[in-house]
Amino acid sequence: MADDETNLEQARRHVREATSRLAEQRTRIAELERDGHEATRSRELLVTMEDSFRLMQEHLEVEEQEARQAAAASPGT
Hints:
Layout: H1 7-34, H2 40-73
Helix pairs in contact: 1-2
């Protein structure tokens, strides 16, 4: 995490980056299958990546909720 990056910003970045990596993996799988190659291991990796992504999304939701609560607790900021 960058020194000036909040937990919320980091969680958002992780989700953004993972979204990109998931798209890249899906593209790789499509290319493998289009070219007649076996893609079972690549699909297994994609499932693992998707599981991790769901955890990242859950973490982002927690961080967003905490940020909303903090903002509500200090309405003058």
